[in-house]
Design goal:
The protein is α/β, with parallel strands linked by helices and 361 residues long. It folds into two domains: 10-256, Rossmann fold, CATH 3.40.50.12780; 259-355, GMP Synthetase, Chain A, domain 3, CATH 3.30.300. It is 27% helix and 29% strand. The termini are far apart.
Length: 361
């Protein structure tokens, strides 16, 4: 199929009669933006993209442009974002999240502005936008400026309890995304703020709701299976353990490959982390290492210099209060910096491998 440019599309306040005009203008912005737009309008029905590498080695995959268009339309339908929607791109177009902001704008006829991808991309902006996508660190760094955006979708990393608390009373609607490069960014969304309103409407606050034309089920491991014929040729079997609430909503429990079998008890690191989010100020995650008695024992890795003896003892007491005896970490490790992907996702296994030779506490 030949992709078309919506006649109402604007980029940094410029409108274009032809794709050649758009390509010429994009070269002024950046090589990444320009190269993507060139590839988007070439004759190939596919577009090559790089996966994030958060759960494995980054790899190049080919996505159908037609399916990317369908994904853009699904997001537009979900949020009722019609032509002339004002949108902001503040993420790198190197990865799928940034690419899809461009696709949505070109397909749906948005007025898209591109700014430098930085911690607080809203700091120097003096106008308001209807839609934007950010990573969690950008949201944290932009709290005082979030009122400039009507709706924000957040993806690419874990969203802490402290971040959720900090956005409860802002006017902006904030949604977490669930998806991956293979599903052409998100296939489900979770409301993150105005929990009181959400709960009063009878919707559990921790649930994800799928986009239009997407069906979900689980396999024999309890992992999410996605049927999305408009954006994926085949069913996608994930490694995400979920609890289905109905045909369109699910609760995310954790990664199958992160599950810890300790003394015959299955433990979800992500659920333990949720309970500890208010206790530990630094970034951290829960993992495991082999143990002769338990098979695997729970360990805590903190991005920090080693705690003082007093601080460590206080932390240990808090851990015992917050967690069951099975969940309490049997060892605590420190490292100054977590190993991350280019998109700032924590690489748990590589970080764990890095610290395992350090002294136990």
């Amino acid at each position: 199929m030949k992709v078309k440019l919506h006649p109402q599309f604007k980029l940094n306040s410029h409108q274009f009669k032809t794709t050649d005009e758009l390509i010429s203008f994009s070269k002024i912005l950046s090589d990444e933006v320009s190269q993507f737009i060139i590839n988007w309008f070439d004759k190939s029905p596919f577009l090559k993209v790089i996966t994030s590498g958060s759960t494995g080695i980054p790899k190049e995959i080919a996505l159908k442009k037609e399916q990317m268009i369908n994904s853009a339309k699904a997001t537009g339908e979900y949020f009722d974002l019609k032509e002339n929607t004002t949108a902001l791109l503040c993420m790198s177009p190197k990865y799928i999240a940034g690419k899809m902001m461009l696709v949505r704008a070109m397909v749906l006829g948005w007025n898209l502005d591109i700014v430098t991808s930085e911690l607080n991309p809203l700091n120097k902006i003096n106008k308001k936008y209807e839609f934007c996508a950010m990573v969690p660190l950008q949201v944290v760094s932009s709290l005082d400026d979030l009122h400039k955006i009507k709706t924000i979708i957040v993806g690419g990393g874990a969203i802490s309890n402290s971040l959720k608390s900090s956005i409860q009373n802002i006017k902006t609607d904030v949604f977490a995304t669930y998806g991956m490069t293979e599903t052409i960014t998100h296939i489900a969304l979770q409301k993150l703020n105005y929990f009181d309103v959400v709960i009063s409407s009878g919707v559990e606050k921790s649930l994800f709701t799928v986009l239009p034309s997407i069906s979900i089920s689980t396999d024999n491991r309890g992992c999410l299976v996605i049927d999305a014929p408009l954006i994926c040729d085949e069913r996608i079997i994930t490694n995400d353990i979920v609890e289905l609430k109905n045909e369109t909503t699910f609760k995310w429990l954790g990664r199958f490959d992160n599950v810890i079998n300790s003394g015959g008890i299955k433990l979800f690191p992500e659920q333990i982390e949720f309970q500890l989010a208010e206790i530990i100020d630094n970034r951290f995650f829960i993992s495991s290492e082999p143990d002769e008695l338990l098979g695997n024992k729970v360990v805590l890795i903190i991005e920090s210099l080693p705690y003082s003896t007093v601080s460590l003892n206080i932390l240990k007491e808090k851990l015992k209060t917050a967690l069951s005896s099975y969940e309490v970490p049997k060892s605590i490790y420190y490292t100054p910096n977590f190993v991350e992907t280019e998109t700032k996702k924590i690489q748990r296994q590589k970080t764990l491998d890095l610290v395992l030779n350090q002294p136990k506490i």
